[in-house]
Amino acid sequence: MFEQRPLSAWRTLSLDRFLLGVPHYPEHVDESFLERDAVRIAAAGFNVVRMGEFAWNLFEPVAGRYEFALFDRAIKTFAAHGVSTIMCTPTATPPRWLTVAEPDLLRMTASGAPHRHGSRQHVDTTNPRFREHSRRITEVMAQHYRSTIGIIGWQTDNELNTSYSESFSAAALDEFQLFLIARYGTVDALNEAWGTRVWAQSYNNFSEIDLPYPHMPVAGNPSQVLDYHRFLAHATAMFQRDQVEILRRINPDWFVTHNIGAIRDLDMRGPLASDLDFVGYDIYPFLFDERLRGGHAYLPAFHLDLVRGAAGNLIVPEQQSGFGSQPGFATPVPEPGEMRRMAYSSIARGVDGLMFFRWRPAHYGAEIYWMGVLDHDDIPRRRYDEASRFAHEVGRIAPEILGTTVRIDVGIAGPDFDNEEAAKSYSLGLPTPQEAAMPLHRYCYEQGIACGFVHPEDALHRLKLFFVPHWMLWKPEWTPLLERFAEQGGTLVIGARTGAHTPDNHMIQVTPPGSLRTLCGVAVEEFGPLPAEGAPALTAIWGLSEPLASKPAESGKRQHVISLGEARIPAAFWYERLVPDDGTTVLARWDSRFLKGEAAITQRAAGRGRVIYVGSFLTPALTASLCDLLLPQAGIEPLVAGLPAGVEATLRESDDRRLLFLQNTTSERVEVEGLPAGFELIEASSVQHGRLHLDAYGCAIIKLTSCTSAN
User: Fold this and answer.
1) Number of domains in the chain
2) Whether residues 397 and 416 fall in one domain
3) Closest of 152, 159, 156 to residue 47, by C-alpha
4) Domain span at 669
5) Is 393 marked active-site?
6) Is residue 120 a known part of a binding site?
7) Which residue of 143, 392, 410, 560 pairs with 45 in a disulfide if CB–CB is 3.0 to 4.6 A?
8) Does the model's pTM come out above 0.90?
9) One domain for residues 658 and 600
10) Are residues 628 and 673 in the same domain?
């Protein structure tokens, strides 16, 4: 077994260069294009291409016959021009002859319909027979390319689980039962963990257990549902591990990565990430029409921070370059300058390798309108120029970037697979922990405050404030880690419902927040959901201890209010009735209806730090009020004071340098003032008088004169 690398939000990459390039599909164009492509790719400043992830039908056109000549020539041609190759295992698209011969390899939906050939990710990765085929094609490809000049690493599969993650096939049922045997050992232990006394669900042996079909006829056992998704995540990681073990055995000099797409049944704090040298994450800022959702700049920052929080610095194997489309959707088109800006935003958040998707668009198939660096007519235009400008800039300053990690002052607990899935298994209409963290993360993003995701098992001493966003499932071993953080001077903020469930997804049998009771200095004696604003039922308005201007509640609405001084801020989602312990102070009180005057937010001193308990969920208004109160006391300031709206600010740092990244996400020229002294690396000029101008979608990287790290 190969050695796994410990996971950390601050794990760096072991690369000797910044990877810059494009995915290339030699199977999509005439072979006469190869030489011209290699010349232009190298001239653009790229040093790597990625290929092969959808070409199993070409590598093995019929069972047992392997053909590599086309890709051999492509790899050799690129290498001759100084462009390396990342080869991919092609297991996301098994060939038709395989599913004809073994139709039971297809995924099965809950309705009993098998997936069909003609799309992708249609085969069941939980199926042992498909794992055998996956190992076979990986072994043959790795042996063929074991000494090939130009191949520097491999990508496993392609965007595991992005298209679909569940399976209700016979093979999935068999494997689920084996997973449960390994997890629990005895059926009695499983019955206890699942609480099967409810609704007469007890099992006499593992063979009686079925998959948790949705609504058959009503909702199933939440603990069973949670274990099913644990199984899917485990099966996905083991499917990948098969390939990783083969690749490392055949050539230990190769790096191995994967390109995460949609984060669906992927445990990024488990072997999925720790088996790899580093993680990849595909970035399409305009996918799902994020501009209309007000987040085409923000949402990629959120997701990059989330993935980096699991496994550290990463690469982007696919970065949007232009218009994207499949038959069911179409994205907006990045304006001139946005392609480069979005790429710099990725680097600012811990990316040490980036490939624009794709070199050129296909002329047929389901992605003919997914544009690349080139257009269909093979003529370089503004996207090629923009990509080339970016690649030459980053290639020149890469030594300054590599080896640095992203500064985090405000840490948000995450990602944690069990807590996210447990919230989905019994949602109560509440946000999941990741969704509940977005108001704080977005506030920090807009204010230019160093913020990111950090797991409680990571290096909390590097943070100044740590927020746990409603982690119901609580492991007792996490509590001492939080205690140490607070006692050493940190500000710890605990969200409502945290610690209310056991790791088996049972309600705890003591007063919430359970094992966190002493640390938080508060008991939760009552709780319940808050309906949508304006509904004729219990809602709430917070009031914080610092007066803030706020819109008064409309008369006639039955609202609950919490008073923090004179500020009255509507609450949302959830209320908790708190009873503070002796020595615990009240920061905010409910200010209406039956909770009027009772504690809503509490604070307890812990060593040199403090613990805040919030008896509800964060909203943008409550987040702003709390941050105004807590961040200055924690010594947290924006990276740039008075940051203009629409300008991103992020800091990457190491022991000997600090790099301040600025990106203008707007279409208007802006001036940024109050900048620290330093040298701007992209334009190679000093920052004069603490200010600089950023053109529409303009970018800057300032190497600060003071290199002392604050973390």
Assistant:
1) 3
2) no
3) 152
4) 647-704
5) no
6) yes
7) 392
8) yes
9) no
10) no
